[in-house]
Amino acid sequence: MSAAGEALKPIGEMTVMITGASRGIGAAIAERFAAVGMNIVIHYMNSHEAANEVARRCMALGAKVMTVSADLKDKEQILRMREKLQNHDMEPDILVNNAGISHYGLLSDVTEEEWDTLMSVNLKGMFLCTQALMGKMVGQRFGRIINVSSVWGLSGASCEVLYSASKGGVNAFTKALAKELAPSGVTVNAVAPGAVDTSMLGHLEPDEIRMLEEEIPAGRLAQPDEISSLVYFLALPESGYITGQVISPNGGWVT
Hints:
Blueprint: E1 15-18, H1 24-34, E2 39-44, H2 48-60, E3 65-69, H3 75-87, E4 94-97, H4 112-140, E5 143-148, H5 152-155, H6 161-181, E6 186-191, H7 206-215, H8 224-235, E7 246-247
Parallel strand pairs: 1-2, 1-4, 2-3, 4-5, 5-6, 6-7
Helix pairs in contact: 1-2, 1-8, 3-4, 4-6
């Protein structure tokens, strides 16, 4: 008897879509999958040239690559994106919901607009993309949905209440959907990194970065390729019994 969620085709023939893949962790994930010859869909919103640069690096690794632009807050744009993917036979077997924005500041200063914007990108966008693209996975009884969360979704962070709340929502979404899709051979997991050396930490001064590194038992920030390797592992066919998990690579910072 074959295992539930067993791949119907070699991993090199699969297609992965990464949202927010024009830089940082998303770009590293795209390149990690491209290295095994997988078909790559690079989603971006406004960073056209940055997305094209990631695409060129992926093509240099031998991958078939497609870039797509959509506002993840807009269901109609997501549905048009899905139609474009279907027309090019690039509808994903693996979806990495990576797109997200951060917010730093006191809760007392947060505006309703800031709350709505952040939740629309970090939570609603993940929901809309997953809902639109999981049908193929369910139909073929194989798929991987991997949500990029944050350590702050597990422990919360002072002055990052909005971001922490949104990533806590990502974690709960992951656990619930994993139970819903497990009978269909589709796994759903989240990767919740600690501090990663990307532009998302750009609001910190050098001395603040040093203080942060001193708090982390590993003594340093993570590199994007360390996160991408974990995402890749969760996407493998042999990871089919791992679902509903929130795994936090954080250098021992939060356990």
